[in-house]
Structure to design on (496 residues):
């Protein structure tokens, strides 16, 4: 029930936090602008499509319930997957993939599956991000030199020595590398400046300075190719939907759905730790991401996820409500509508530098060291996932990481202890305790088959919490073989 205002007092303001949210939205806009453009260029699509996804992330996803302060847009974490999809299936198919991803996210949110993404091993997610970071860094080093990067992640890394030789012999490549390296240096050094200077985001400052340097020195450096915002938006046609019969395209959709959902919900958990406001409703947030991706798919734009860089900037800038993320989408729309030609001045190696810096931050160097000291199995899963993504591809690398995580969990959950008591006379007593699964079966059978064949055996299973079908069958078969040697039948207790 709404409380009436007391006589003589003014009513409470309708938007009590508008000042804080307005200021925060401008900060997020300045952070998002170079990242939207950089992610689009690195993904092999027109720069304007990155802005379209950022606009939808603000104006569509930003309005929906779920997480109040989390900001969505094109993410560096999907760059590799988008590039592979566009290279393999073509740009028109991207809209179909993103639309299908959004619809699947909406379905999963309606089925309340959002909370289950928190059950994915953190090591797999961090390994995924580390692998993506390595591929991004390797690929953008070629872009920084103005060279064409190989297709696969492994070829990108193996080809770097040859690319270095090519770059050293080219004046244009060296100039381009200098712009990219300068961009990275500015971004790293920007964090050490006084707080007043850091009010301008480091990525934006680095890109602006690189642009001014290229213009002032007349450097022979490639810049962003610009078309119109409306001309870049190309909804997928009927022919593109015919590709859904391709199993490869369906696998790509599943990869987009898994990775985009996991990254968004893990980001939500991280953002919740940064503020004391309302907590994230995971199922609603998954549906909000799905709605945004569905709209992006219809527009033929890049997929979106929640992005921790923009989200943390939103919180640190003092945002209080979702109005800040909606307004940041409005600023992106105004920029794309009124100043599209400004994009054509941005040097490509500067955007490559922004992406190299972003890729470096995706690699959890300290996290790997801490995991190795405490949980070496988890550290191994992280490293194998990252290496698999580089060596194979994104989808299969994540599946390898998930499979390793399941195997590790099953191995740890199937701890079993076999104790043999032999008093020299009478039957040998063997006691099994714990969880007997097929993973421990070779060890159990080796111990039982080493028992003397001419002595009776009593096998006590009363200490088992779990006995799977494989172990039950194997133990029964062992008992029959042991009894066939002319000794008394093996006595098995507590086998149900």
């Amino acid at each position: 029930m709404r409380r009436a205002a007391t006589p003589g007092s003014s009513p409470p303001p309708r938007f009590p936090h508008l000042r804080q949210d307005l200021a925060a939205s401008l900060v997020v806009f300045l952070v998002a602008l170079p990242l939207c453009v950089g992610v689009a260029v690195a993904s092999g699509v027109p720069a304007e499509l990155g802005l379209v996804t950022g606009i939808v992330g603000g104006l569509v996803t930003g309005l929906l319930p779920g997480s109040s302060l989390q900001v969505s847009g094109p993410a560096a974490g999907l760059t590799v997957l988008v590039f592979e999809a566009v290279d393999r299936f073509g740009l028109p198919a991207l809209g179909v993939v993103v639309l299908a991803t959004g619809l699947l996210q909406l379905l999963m949110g309606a089925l309340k599956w959002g909370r289950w993404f928190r059950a994915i091993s953190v090591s797999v997610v961090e390994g995924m991000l580390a692998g993506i970071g390595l591929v991004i860094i390797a690929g953008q080093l070629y872009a920084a030199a103005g060279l064409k990067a190989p297709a696969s992640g492994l070829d990108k890394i193996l080809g770097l020595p040859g690319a270095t030789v090519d770059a050293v012999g080219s004046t244009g490549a060296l100039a381009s590398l200098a712009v990219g390296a300068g961009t990275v240096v500015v971004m790293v050094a920007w964090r050490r400046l006084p707080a007043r200077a850091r009010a301008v985001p480091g990525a934006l400052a680095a890109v602006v300075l690189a642009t001014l340097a290229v213009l002032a020195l007349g450097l022979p450096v490639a810049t962003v190719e610009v078309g119109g915002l409306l001309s870049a938006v190309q909804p997928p046609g009927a022919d593109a939907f015919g590709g859904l019969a391709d199993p490869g395209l369906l696998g790509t959709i599943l990869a987009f759905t898994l990775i985009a959902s996991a990254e968004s919900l893990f980001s939500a958990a991280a953002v919740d730790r940064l503020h004391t406001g309302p907590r994230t409703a995971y199922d609603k947030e998954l549906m909000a991401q799905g709605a945004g991706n569905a709209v992006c798919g219809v527009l033929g734009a890049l997929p979106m996820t929640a992005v921790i860089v923009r989200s943390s900037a939103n919180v640190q800038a003092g945002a209080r409500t979702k109005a800040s993320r909606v307004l940041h989408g409005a600023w992106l729309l105004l920029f794309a509508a009124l100043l599209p030609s400004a994009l054509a001045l941005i040097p490509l190696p500067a955007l490559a530098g922004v992406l190299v810096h972003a890729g470096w931050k995706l690699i959890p160097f300290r996290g790997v060291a801490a995991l190795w000291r405490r949980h070496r199995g988890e550290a191994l899963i992280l490293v194998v996932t990252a290496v698999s993504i580089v060596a194979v591809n994104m989808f299969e690398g994540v599946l390898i990481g998930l499979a390793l995580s399941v195997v590790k969990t099953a191995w740890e959950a199937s701890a079993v202890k076999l104790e043999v008591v032999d008093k020299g006379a009478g039957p040998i007593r063997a006691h099994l305790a714990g969880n007997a699964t097929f993973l421990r079966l070779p060890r159990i059978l080796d111990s039982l088959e080493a028992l003397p064949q001419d002595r009776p055996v009593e096998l006590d299973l009363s200490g088992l919490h779990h006995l799977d079908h494989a172990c039950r069958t194997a133990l029964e078969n062992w008992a029959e073989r042991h009894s066939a040697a002319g000794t008394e039948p093996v006595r098995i207790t507590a086998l149900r």
Notes: The chain has two domains: 17-407, 415-493.
